[in-house]
Amino acid sequence: xxxxxxxxxxxxxxxxxxxxxxxxxxxxxxxxxxxxxxxxxxxxxxxxxxxxxxxxxxxxxxxxxxxxxxxxxxxxxxxxxxxxxxxxxxxxxxxxxxxxxxxxxxxxxxxxxxxxxxxxxxxxxxxxxxxxxxxxxxxxxxxxxxxxxxxxxxxxxxxxxxxxxxxxxxxxxxxxxxxxxxxxxxxxxxxxxxxxxxxxxxxxxxxxxxxxxxxxxxxxxxxxxxxxxxxxxxxxxxxxxxxxxxxxxxxxxxxxxxxxxxxxxxxxxxxxxxxxxxxxxxxxxxxxxxxxxxxxxxxxxxxxxxxxxxxxxxxxxxxxxxxxxxxxxxxxxxxxxxxxxxxxxxxxxxxxxxxxxxxxxxxxxxxxxxxxxxxxxxxxxxxxxxxxxxxxxxxxxxxxxxxxxxxxxxxxxxxxxxxxxxxxxxxxxxxxxxxxxxxxxxxxxxxxxxxxxx
Length: 454
Prior knowledge:
The chain is an alpha/beta fold. Helix content is about 35%, strand content about 20%. The protein has 16 helices and 20 strands. The protein has a 9-stranded mixed β-sheet with strand order 7-8-6-9-10-11-12-13-14, with helices on both faces. Strands 15-16-20-17-18-19 form a 6-stranded mixed β-sheet, sandwiched between helices. A 5-stranded parallel β-sheet has the order 3-2-1-4-5. A hairpin with a 2-residue loop joins β13 (about 260) and β14 (about 265-270). It is an enzyme of class 6 (ligase).
Protein backbone atom coordinates (compact mmCIF):
# COMPACT_ATOMS: atom_id res chain seq x y z
CA UNK A 1 0.00 0.00 0.00
CA UNK A 2 1.31 3.44 -0.93
CA UNK A 3 1.56 6.20 1.64
CA UNK A 4 -0.64 9.20 0.87
CA UNK A 5 0.46 12.78 1.44
CA UNK A 6 -3.08 13.74 0.35
CA UNK A 7 -4.49 12.41 3.64
CA UNK A 8 -1.56 12.39 6.07
CA UNK A 9 -2.45 14.54 9.09
CA UNK A 10 -5.50 15.85 7.24
CA UNK A 11 -8.99 16.00 8.75
CA UNK A 12 -11.17 13.51 6.84
CA UNK A 13 -14.87 12.89 7.29
CA UNK A 14 -16.16 9.43 6.37
CA UNK A 15 -19.89 9.70 5.79
CA UNK A 16 -21.76 6.40 6.04
CA UNK A 17 -20.29 3.09 7.10
CA UNK A 18 -21.30 -0.37 5.83
CA UNK A 19 -18.40 -2.36 4.36
CA UNK A 20 -16.90 0.37 2.19
CA UNK A 21 -17.08 3.12 4.80
CA UNK A 22 -15.62 0.95 7.53
CA UNK A 23 -12.72 -0.13 5.32
CA UNK A 24 -12.04 3.43 4.15
CA UNK A 25 -12.07 4.78 7.72
CA UNK A 26 -9.71 2.06 8.92
CA UNK A 27 -7.26 2.69 6.08
CA UNK A 28 -7.37 6.47 6.44
CA UNK A 29 -6.61 6.12 10.15
CA UNK A 30 -3.73 3.77 9.30
CA UNK A 31 -2.44 6.33 6.76
CA UNK A 32 -2.23 9.01 9.43
CA UNK A 33 -5.40 10.98 8.77
CA UNK A 34 -7.49 12.50 11.56
CA UNK A 35 -10.67 10.56 10.84
CA UNK A 36 -14.23 11.30 11.93
CA UNK A 37 -16.98 8.84 11.02
CA UNK A 38 -20.61 9.91 10.79
CA UNK A 39 -23.27 7.20 10.41
CA UNK A 40 -27.05 7.29 10.82
CA UNK A 41 -27.25 3.96 12.65
CA UNK A 42 -27.26 4.33 16.47
CA UNK A 43 -23.91 3.55 18.12
CA UNK A 44 -25.27 0.68 20.22
CA UNK A 45 -26.50 -1.05 17.03
CA UNK A 46 -23.35 -0.27 15.07
CA UNK A 47 -20.50 -2.79 15.54
CA UNK A 48 -18.39 -1.14 12.83
CA UNK A 49 -18.56 2.21 14.62
CA UNK A 50 -17.71 0.53 17.93
CA UNK A 51 -14.64 -1.11 16.40
CA UNK A 52 -13.48 2.16 14.84
CA UNK A 53 -13.89 3.98 18.16
CA UNK A 54 -11.63 1.37 19.79
CA UNK A 55 -8.99 2.18 17.11
CA UNK A 56 -9.06 5.84 18.06
CA UNK A 57 -11.36 7.12 15.32
CA UNK A 58 -13.86 9.84 16.25
CA UNK A 59 -17.39 8.46 15.84
CA UNK A 60 -20.69 10.35 15.56
CA UNK A 61 -23.70 8.04 15.25
CA UNK A 62 -27.46 8.23 15.05
CA UNK A 63 -27.68 11.61 13.33
CA UNK A 64 -25.99 13.88 10.76
CA UNK A 65 -25.25 17.19 12.54
CA UNK A 66 -25.80 20.08 10.12
CA UNK A 67 -22.80 22.03 11.40
CA UNK A 68 -20.39 19.10 11.15
CA UNK A 69 -18.47 20.54 8.21
CA UNK A 70 -17.58 23.63 10.24
CA UNK A 71 -14.92 21.52 11.95
CA UNK A 72 -12.40 22.03 9.14
CA UNK A 73 -12.55 18.81 7.19
CA UNK A 74 -10.33 18.78 4.10
CA UNK A 75 -11.74 15.64 2.43
CA UNK A 76 -15.10 13.84 2.61
CA UNK A 77 -15.29 10.13 1.76
CA UNK A 78 -18.91 9.14 1.31
CA UNK A 79 -20.74 5.85 1.02
CA UNK A 80 -21.75 5.47 -2.67
CA UNK A 81 -25.42 5.12 -1.75
CA UNK A 82 -25.64 8.53 -0.10
CA UNK A 83 -27.12 10.91 -2.69
CA UNK A 84 -25.58 14.22 -3.63
CA UNK A 85 -28.74 15.92 -2.37
CA UNK A 86 -27.64 15.06 1.18
CA UNK A 87 -27.19 18.30 3.12
CA UNK A 88 -23.63 17.48 4.22
CA UNK A 89 -22.57 16.53 0.68
CA UNK A 90 -24.15 19.68 -0.76
CA UNK A 91 -22.40 21.76 1.87
CA UNK A 92 -19.02 20.09 1.19
CA UNK A 93 -19.28 20.77 -2.53
CA UNK A 94 -20.27 24.40 -1.90
CA UNK A 95 -17.17 24.75 0.28
CA UNK A 96 -15.10 23.08 -2.50
CA UNK A 97 -14.12 20.21 -0.21
CA UNK A 98 -13.25 17.15 -2.35
CA UNK A 99 -15.91 14.41 -2.07
CA UNK A 100 -14.60 10.90 -2.77
CA UNK A 101 -16.00 7.43 -2.83
CA UNK A 102 -13.63 4.76 -1.56
CA UNK A 103 -12.75 3.83 -5.18
CA UNK A 104 -10.67 7.03 -5.31
CA UNK A 105 -8.91 5.99 -2.11
CA UNK A 106 -8.32 2.50 -3.53
CA UNK A 107 -6.70 3.93 -6.64
CA UNK A 108 -4.46 6.31 -4.71
CA UNK A 109 -3.07 3.64 -2.35
CA UNK A 110 -2.78 0.80 -4.86
CA UNK A 111 0.56 -0.48 -6.13
CA UNK A 112 -1.36 -2.53 -8.72
CA UNK A 113 -2.95 -1.22 -11.92
CA UNK A 114 -6.72 -1.32 -12.43
CA UNK A 115 -9.09 -2.68 -15.04
CA UNK A 116 -12.45 -0.94 -14.52
CA UNK A 117 -15.78 -2.32 -15.71
CA UNK A 118 -19.07 -0.42 -15.72
CA UNK A 119 -22.36 -0.36 -17.63
CA UNK A 120 -26.09 -0.47 -16.98
CA UNK A 121 -26.20 -4.25 -17.45
CA UNK A 122 -23.58 -6.99 -17.55
CA UNK A 123 -20.99 -5.53 -15.16
CA UNK A 124 -20.84 -8.49 -12.80
CA UNK A 125 -20.74 -11.12 -15.54
CA UNK A 126 -18.02 -9.24 -17.45
CA UNK A 127 -15.95 -8.69 -14.31
CA UNK A 128 -16.20 -12.31 -13.20
CA UNK A 129 -15.52 -13.70 -16.66
CA UNK A 130 -12.46 -11.48 -17.12
CA UNK A 131 -11.16 -12.44 -13.69
CA UNK A 132 -11.39 -16.14 -14.59
CA UNK A 133 -9.61 -15.59 -17.90
CA UNK A 134 -6.71 -13.73 -16.28
CA UNK A 135 -6.57 -16.07 -13.31
CA UNK A 136 -6.29 -19.18 -15.48
CA UNK A 137 -3.52 -17.44 -17.41
CA UNK A 138 -1.59 -16.77 -14.16
CA UNK A 139 -1.86 -12.99 -14.49
CA UNK A 140 -2.43 -12.64 -10.72
CA UNK A 141 -5.74 -10.76 -10.89
CA UNK A 142 -7.63 -9.55 -7.83
CA UNK A 143 -11.38 -8.90 -8.00
CA UNK A 144 -13.02 -5.92 -6.31
CA UNK A 145 -15.64 -3.19 -6.29
CA UNK A 146 -19.39 -3.33 -6.68
CA UNK A 147 -19.20 -7.13 -6.99
CA UNK A 148 -19.01 -7.34 -3.20
CA UNK A 149 -15.33 -6.93 -2.26
CA UNK A 150 -14.33 -3.46 -1.07
CA UNK A 151 -11.78 -2.09 -3.54
CA UNK A 152 -9.68 -0.17 -1.01
CA UNK A 153 -9.33 -3.31 1.11
CA UNK A 154 -8.11 -5.23 -1.95
CA UNK A 155 -5.77 -2.38 -2.95
CA UNK A 156 -4.24 -2.34 0.53
CA UNK A 157 -2.68 -5.76 -0.11
CA UNK A 158 -2.07 -5.54 -3.87
CA UNK A 159 1.44 -5.68 -5.33
CA UNK A 160 2.74 -4.37 -8.67
CA UNK A 161 2.45 -7.92 -10.02
CA UNK A 162 -1.33 -7.91 -9.50
CA UNK A 163 -4.10 -6.31 -11.54
CA UNK A 164 -7.32 -5.26 -9.80
CA UNK A 165 -10.36 -6.19 -11.89
CA UNK A 166 -12.99 -3.81 -10.55
CA UNK A 167 -16.76 -3.64 -11.06
CA UNK A 168 -17.87 -0.02 -10.77
CA UNK A 169 -21.32 1.50 -10.37
CA UNK A 170 -22.28 5.01 -11.44
CA UNK A 171 -22.58 5.84 -7.71
CA UNK A 172 -18.94 4.87 -7.16
CA UNK A 173 -17.59 6.52 -10.29
CA UNK A 174 -19.30 9.85 -9.60
CA UNK A 175 -17.07 10.21 -6.53
CA UNK A 176 -13.74 9.74 -8.35
CA UNK A 177 -11.27 12.49 -9.21
CA UNK A 178 -7.93 10.97 -10.31
CA UNK A 179 -9.00 7.34 -10.85
CA UNK A 180 -7.40 6.00 -14.03
CA UNK A 181 -7.78 2.35 -15.06
CA UNK A 182 -5.34 1.10 -17.67
CA UNK A 183 -8.29 -0.68 -19.33
CA UNK A 184 -11.81 0.74 -19.01
CA UNK A 185 -14.92 -1.14 -20.14
CA UNK A 186 -18.46 0.16 -20.62
CA UNK A 187 -20.76 -2.73 -21.55
CA UNK A 188 -23.80 -0.56 -22.38
CA UNK A 189 -25.79 2.45 -21.17
CA UNK A 190 -29.54 2.50 -20.60
CA UNK A 191 -31.64 4.92 -18.58
CA UNK A 192 -31.28 3.98 -14.91
CA UNK A 193 -30.95 5.35 -11.35
CA UNK A 194 -32.59 8.65 -12.20
CA UNK A 195 -33.86 8.94 -8.61
CA UNK A 196 -30.20 9.21 -7.56
CA UNK A 197 -28.66 11.09 -10.49
CA UNK A 198 -31.60 13.38 -11.30
CA UNK A 199 -31.06 13.16 -15.06
CA UNK A 200 -29.89 10.86 -17.82
CA UNK A 201 -27.08 13.32 -18.49
CA UNK A 202 -25.70 13.05 -14.96
CA UNK A 203 -26.00 9.25 -15.00
CA UNK A 204 -24.13 9.03 -18.32
CA UNK A 205 -21.48 11.53 -17.23
CA UNK A 206 -20.90 9.50 -14.06
CA UNK A 207 -20.39 6.33 -16.11
CA UNK A 208 -18.01 8.11 -18.48
CA UNK A 209 -15.77 9.15 -15.56
CA UNK A 210 -14.25 5.69 -15.95
CA UNK A 211 -12.27 7.01 -18.92
CA UNK A 212 -11.86 10.72 -18.13
CA UNK A 213 -8.26 10.42 -16.86
CA UNK A 214 -7.06 7.84 -19.36
CA UNK A 215 -4.23 8.70 -21.75
CA UNK A 216 -3.19 7.39 -25.15
CA UNK A 217 -1.33 4.59 -23.34
CA UNK A 218 -4.66 3.23 -22.03
CA UNK A 219 -7.56 1.34 -23.61
CA UNK A 220 -11.31 2.04 -23.67
CA UNK A 221 -13.47 -0.97 -24.60
CA UNK A 222 -17.00 0.07 -25.51
CA UNK A 223 -20.22 -1.12 -27.15
CA UNK A 224 -20.10 0.09 -30.76
CA UNK A 225 -23.74 -0.94 -31.25
CA UNK A 226 -24.83 1.96 -29.03
CA UNK A 227 -24.54 5.38 -30.72
CA UNK A 228 -24.28 7.16 -27.35
CA UNK A 229 -21.08 5.23 -26.55
CA UNK A 230 -19.67 5.72 -30.04
CA UNK A 231 -20.15 9.47 -29.60
CA UNK A 232 -18.46 9.48 -26.19
CA UNK A 233 -15.60 7.24 -27.38
CA UNK A 234 -14.78 9.78 -30.10
CA UNK A 235 -14.04 12.32 -27.35
CA UNK A 236 -11.77 10.02 -25.31
CA UNK A 237 -7.98 10.14 -25.28
CA UNK A 238 -7.58 6.40 -24.71
CA UNK A 239 -7.20 3.90 -27.55
CA UNK A 240 -10.74 2.88 -28.49
CA UNK A 241 -11.52 -0.82 -28.69
CA UNK A 242 -15.10 -1.15 -30.00
CA UNK A 243 -17.08 -4.40 -29.86
CA UNK A 244 -20.06 -5.25 -32.03
CA UNK A 245 -22.55 -8.07 -32.55
CA UNK A 246 -23.30 -6.91 -36.10
CA UNK A 247 -20.75 -9.00 -37.95
CA UNK A 248 -17.02 -9.40 -38.41
CA UNK A 249 -14.77 -6.36 -38.34
CA UNK A 250 -11.12 -6.32 -39.37
CA UNK A 251 -10.05 -4.50 -36.22
CA UNK A 252 -10.97 -5.01 -32.57
CA UNK A 253 -13.47 -7.69 -31.50
CA UNK A 254 -16.78 -8.70 -33.09
CA UNK A 255 -19.30 -11.48 -33.58
CA UNK A 256 -21.79 -12.72 -36.13
CA UNK A 257 -24.30 -15.57 -35.93
CA UNK A 258 -21.58 -18.24 -35.98
CA UNK A 259 -18.26 -16.94 -34.70
CA UNK A 260 -16.45 -14.52 -32.40
CA UNK A 261 -13.58 -12.72 -34.17
CA UNK A 262 -10.48 -10.97 -32.87
CA UNK A 263 -8.98 -8.50 -35.35
CA UNK A 264 -10.91 -10.16 -38.15
CA UNK A 265 -9.75 -13.72 -37.40
CA UNK A 266 -11.99 -16.46 -36.03
CA UNK A 267 -11.49 -16.95 -32.31
CA UNK A 268 -14.26 -19.37 -31.30
CA UNK A 269 -17.50 -20.82 -32.63
CA UNK A 270 -20.46 -19.37 -30.78
CA UNK A 271 -22.01 -22.84 -30.45
CA UNK A 272 -19.07 -23.84 -28.22
CA UNK A 273 -19.57 -20.97 -25.76
CA UNK A 274 -21.22 -22.21 -22.58
CA UNK A 275 -22.66 -18.87 -21.41
CA UNK A 276 -25.98 -18.43 -23.19
CA UNK A 277 -27.88 -15.40 -24.38
CA UNK A 278 -27.36 -12.56 -26.83
CA UNK A 279 -26.90 -10.05 -24.00
CA UNK A 280 -24.11 -12.17 -22.54
CA UNK A 281 -22.31 -12.13 -25.88
CA UNK A 282 -21.66 -8.42 -25.30
CA UNK A 283 -20.10 -9.30 -21.96
CA UNK A 284 -18.03 -12.05 -23.58
CA UNK A 285 -16.65 -9.70 -26.24
CA UNK A 286 -15.73 -7.04 -23.68
CA UNK A 287 -14.04 -9.48 -21.29
CA UNK A 288 -12.22 -11.27 -24.11
CA UNK A 289 -10.84 -8.02 -25.55
CA UNK A 290 -9.58 -6.96 -22.10
CA UNK A 291 -7.96 -10.35 -21.45
CA UNK A 292 -6.16 -10.26 -24.81
CA UNK A 293 -5.00 -6.68 -24.24
CA UNK A 294 -3.60 -7.73 -20.86
CA UNK A 295 -1.59 -10.50 -22.51
CA UNK A 296 -3.95 -13.41 -22.04
CA UNK A 297 -3.62 -16.32 -24.45
CA UNK A 298 -6.30 -17.32 -26.92
CA UNK A 299 -6.06 -20.92 -25.72
CA UNK A 300 -6.91 -19.96 -22.13
CA UNK A 301 -9.71 -17.64 -23.21
CA UNK A 302 -11.28 -20.40 -25.32
CA UNK A 303 -10.98 -22.84 -22.41
CA UNK A 304 -12.83 -20.41 -20.11
CA UNK A 305 -15.54 -19.63 -22.68
CA UNK A 306 -16.26 -23.33 -23.15
CA UNK A 307 -16.65 -23.92 -19.40
CA UNK A 308 -17.93 -20.71 -17.74
CA UNK A 309 -21.65 -21.08 -17.00
CA UNK A 310 -22.31 -17.60 -15.65
CA UNK A 311 -22.55 -15.65 -12.43
CA UNK A 312 -24.95 -17.09 -9.92
CA UNK A 313 -28.52 -15.77 -10.32
CA UNK A 314 -27.69 -13.91 -13.58
CA UNK A 315 -28.80 -16.10 -16.51
CA UNK A 316 -26.92 -18.89 -14.74
CA UNK A 317 -27.01 -22.22 -16.55
CA UNK A 318 -28.05 -25.00 -14.15
CA UNK A 319 -28.49 -28.27 -16.06
CA UNK A 320 -29.49 -29.84 -19.36
CA UNK A 321 -32.01 -32.52 -18.44
CA UNK A 322 -33.75 -34.61 -21.09
CA UNK A 323 -33.22 -31.86 -23.65
CA UNK A 324 -34.51 -29.09 -21.38
CA UNK A 325 -32.07 -26.33 -20.37
CA UNK A 326 -32.65 -24.69 -16.97
CA UNK A 327 -31.46 -21.11 -16.29
CA UNK A 328 -31.52 -19.14 -13.03
CA UNK A 329 -32.00 -15.41 -13.63
CA UNK A 330 -33.36 -14.55 -10.18
CA UNK A 331 -31.45 -11.23 -10.27
CA UNK A 332 -34.00 -10.02 -12.87
CA UNK A 333 -36.10 -7.93 -10.48
CA UNK A 334 -37.72 -5.68 -13.09
CA UNK A 335 -39.33 -6.01 -16.51
CA UNK A 336 -36.30 -4.59 -18.35
CA UNK A 337 -34.04 -7.35 -17.01
CA UNK A 338 -36.59 -10.06 -17.88
CA UNK A 339 -37.04 -8.55 -21.34
CA UNK A 340 -33.28 -8.98 -21.89
CA UNK A 341 -33.50 -12.61 -20.79
CA UNK A 342 -36.45 -13.39 -23.07
CA UNK A 343 -34.64 -11.72 -25.95
CA UNK A 344 -31.50 -13.75 -25.24
CA UNK A 345 -32.77 -17.31 -25.49
CA UNK A 346 -33.83 -18.86 -28.79
CA UNK A 347 -36.67 -21.36 -29.12
CA UNK A 348 -39.58 -21.99 -26.79
CA UNK A 349 -39.42 -20.72 -23.21
CA UNK A 350 -41.18 -21.90 -20.09
CA UNK A 351 -41.02 -18.73 -18.00
CA UNK A 352 -41.21 -18.62 -14.20
CA UNK A 353 -42.06 -15.05 -13.14
CA UNK A 354 -43.69 -13.08 -10.36
CA UNK A 355 -43.00 -11.71 -6.91
CA UNK A 356 -43.42 -8.51 -4.92
CA UNK A 357 -46.13 -6.18 -6.21
CA UNK A 358 -44.69 -2.72 -6.83
CA UNK A 359 -47.12 -1.87 -9.64
CA UNK A 360 -44.37 -1.73 -12.25
CA UNK A 361 -45.54 -1.90 -15.84
CA UNK A 362 -45.10 -5.21 -17.69
CA UNK A 363 -45.46 -3.61 -21.12
CA UNK A 364 -41.75 -3.93 -21.93
CA UNK A 365 -42.26 -7.69 -22.00
CA UNK A 366 -45.12 -7.66 -24.51
CA UNK A 367 -43.02 -7.84 -27.73
CA UNK A 368 -41.22 -10.92 -26.39
CA UNK A 369 -44.11 -12.89 -24.91
CA UNK A 370 -44.57 -14.80 -28.16
CA UNK A 371 -41.43 -16.70 -27.15
CA UNK A 372 -43.18 -17.95 -24.01
CA UNK A 373 -45.07 -21.22 -24.48
CA UNK A 374 -45.91 -21.53 -20.77
CA UNK A 375 -45.94 -18.98 -17.96
CA UNK A 376 -45.70 -20.26 -14.39
CA UNK A 377 -46.36 -17.33 -12.09
CA UNK A 378 -46.20 -16.90 -8.32
CA UNK A 379 -46.17 -14.34 -5.54
CA UNK A 380 -48.14 -11.12 -5.12
CA UNK A 381 -48.11 -10.37 -8.86
CA UNK A 382 -49.38 -13.82 -9.90
CA UNK A 383 -52.87 -12.64 -10.90
CA UNK A 384 -51.56 -9.62 -12.82
CA UNK A 385 -48.92 -11.69 -14.61
CA UNK A 386 -51.49 -14.34 -15.51
CA UNK A 387 -53.87 -11.75 -16.98
CA UNK A 388 -51.03 -10.09 -18.90
CA UNK A 389 -49.84 -13.41 -20.34
CA UNK A 390 -53.35 -14.28 -21.52
CA UNK A 391 -53.62 -10.84 -23.18
CA UNK A 392 -50.35 -11.60 -24.98
CA UNK A 393 -51.63 -14.97 -26.21
CA UNK A 394 -49.41 -17.22 -24.10
CA UNK A 395 -50.90 -20.72 -24.64
CA UNK A 396 -50.55 -22.03 -21.06
CA UNK A 397 -50.60 -20.12 -17.78
CA UNK A 398 -50.18 -21.79 -14.37
CA UNK A 399 -50.22 -20.21 -10.93
CA UNK A 400 -47.90 -21.74 -8.33
CA UNK A 401 -47.05 -21.44 -4.66
CA UNK A 402 -43.39 -21.57 -3.70
CA UNK A 403 -40.50 -22.50 -5.99
CA UNK A 404 -40.79 -26.27 -5.69
CA UNK A 405 -44.36 -26.10 -6.95
CA UNK A 406 -43.39 -23.68 -9.74
CA UNK A 407 -40.57 -25.92 -10.99
CA UNK A 408 -42.81 -29.00 -10.89
CA UNK A 409 -45.40 -27.22 -13.04
CA UNK A 410 -42.71 -25.92 -15.42
CA UNK A 411 -41.30 -29.40 -15.97
CA UNK A 412 -44.77 -30.87 -16.43
CA UNK A 413 -45.56 -28.42 -19.26
CA UNK A 414 -42.14 -28.62 -20.94
CA UNK A 415 -40.62 -30.87 -23.57
CA UNK A 416 -37.21 -31.55 -25.07
CA UNK A 417 -35.75 -28.43 -26.68
CA UNK A 418 -37.40 -25.99 -24.26
CA UNK A 419 -35.62 -23.43 -22.08
CA UNK A 420 -36.97 -23.35 -18.51
CA UNK A 421 -36.14 -19.86 -17.28
CA UNK A 422 -36.56 -18.27 -13.85
CA UNK A 423 -36.61 -14.54 -14.64
CA UNK A 424 -39.14 -13.06 -12.20
CA UNK A 425 -39.34 -9.37 -13.30
CA UNK A 426 -40.12 -8.63 -9.64
CA UNK A 427 -38.36 -8.32 -6.31
CA UNK A 428 -38.44 -11.37 -4.06
CA UNK A 429 -39.47 -9.93 -0.71
CA UNK A 430 -43.06 -11.19 -0.70
CA UNK A 431 -41.84 -14.80 -0.44
CA UNK A 432 -38.04 -14.74 -0.03
CA UNK A 433 -35.64 -12.48 1.87
CA UNK A 434 -33.48 -11.86 -1.22
CA UNK A 435 -33.20 -12.69 -4.90
CA UNK A 436 -30.24 -14.94 -3.93
CA UNK A 437 -32.42 -17.04 -1.63
CA UNK A 438 -35.11 -17.22 -4.33
CA UNK A 439 -32.51 -18.32 -6.89
CA UNK A 440 -31.09 -20.93 -4.53
CA UNK A 441 -34.61 -22.30 -4.00
CA UNK A 442 -34.95 -22.64 -7.78
CA UNK A 443 -31.59 -24.42 -8.08
CA UNK A 444 -32.45 -26.80 -5.24
CA UNK A 445 -35.86 -27.61 -6.74
CA UNK A 446 -34.38 -28.21 -10.21
CA UNK A 447 -31.69 -30.52 -8.87
CA UNK A 448 -34.09 -32.42 -6.65
CA UNK A 449 -36.73 -32.92 -9.34
CA UNK A 450 -34.37 -33.75 -12.20
CA UNK A 451 -32.22 -36.14 -10.18
CA UNK A 452 -35.35 -37.93 -8.93
CA UNK A 453 -36.52 -38.45 -12.53
CA UNK A 454 -33.33 -39.59 -14.26
